[in-house]
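Hi R.,

As promised, here are both runs. First protein below:
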Amino acid sequence: MSALDKPPSPMALEGRASEFAAVLAAAAATNRVAKQPTESMVREVTDLLVRLRDRKGRLFVVGNGGSAGVASHAVTDFLNVGRLRATTLHDPALLTCMSNDYGYEVAFANVLKVMAEPDDVLIAISSSGKSMNIRNAVEAMRALGGTCITLSGFESSNPLRAMGDFNFWLDSKDYGMVEIGHQFILHNIADRLRLGL
């Protein structure tokens, strides 16, 4: 059998690209009250970040593992092209200090309690939506009077999905699809900030 006669691999790029397009097209956006059109919510978040930039507020972005990588990339885009005062909270020395002294579940929350101001914004990323340290960060930010944007995937009932002022959920249990989808959404928002859209 030649390579041309073999059935396509389930990991073939064309098939995966089609799968990704379907996951992104089915993205669900909710605020604290109800489901919203995804494009409408992306515009709302962009407007929120424009106002944040205008008042020189701070944007914090948190995630674990692959989502921490998404957070770092997003901060680079928001700072470089979006001109936001953006930062992640996973500096190794700071994170290990907070984890050692207080526990990993509250590491991000404790940093936010010191660094964040009312009206700052937190973007919380978790593929599963179950990470306790991410959920505690959202609770801490809300207690401070800040605004929270969440990005999650996997189960539609994941707890993070209902915690933010703006929530984006991707209907996939594939880490790659969810992480790339989160990166795509955040990159799109940064590009809108750059272009003034």
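And here is the second one, sequence first, then its structure tokens:
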Amino acid sequence: MPIKLKFIIASLSSCSGCILALMALDIFPQFLERVEFNYFPFISDKNEIEDADIALVEGCVSEDTQVEFLKSIRKNVKKLYALGTCAAFGGILSLSKKKDANPISEFVEVDDIIPGCPPPPNLLGSNLIRLIENKSIKLSEKNMCDSCPLKDEINFNFKTQIHKILPSNSEFNSKNSKYKCFLNNGILCLGLITREGCEHKCMNYGLPCEGCLGSPTKKFVSNLINFLSLFPLSNDLKRYSGIFYRFSKPIIKRKR
């Protein structure tokens, strides 16, 4: 009988959406059979961090007490993965002016990330299997536009003024025969600088990409600044700092 991998699955500041996405996977019952949980408060009574092979941590660090908890996990596992956008980049809490939202990589070494808000089922499920099989995480190196259903409508002259972050209900929906690239219609879409892997679910529902999977190259915020510099922006958007802090802030290196 093969030896079961020992897992730690923990949450920091989060909505628990990434954990719920994990538990909603079709393969989750098989996952339960093939691993042993040394810490997983959602389904286990164990409340002590013990030695384990792999840790999946969701949520950002927003409290000082979470730092020591996170470090205790890192100390007791062979590999640690950031689960979801909050753990990987800081997440939606980055919009707050009262709370810090730090990715876990600012405090401990992270072996890799499984991004998304929450991680898309196919991306999460396939990488969960890879971890069980002792393989590395596999993420796309292409951007969303590479396989976007609206890619034929993309105009790269970048002359259209971007004046909105969301379309009105009447402008775009999945049944609209005039459905075209958001950028061509003055609506901010971050598909050009966002990693593909979500199967374009937002686009399919008439919503532009907001960047929750992060950038396939370099840092998301720096890519965003360069991206926005290509377009004429409305005065309202120029004053809206939430564009930059939707899912992440510039990384501040801290001593570990």
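A quick note on the second one: The mean pLDDT is 88. Let me know what you think.

Best,
J.
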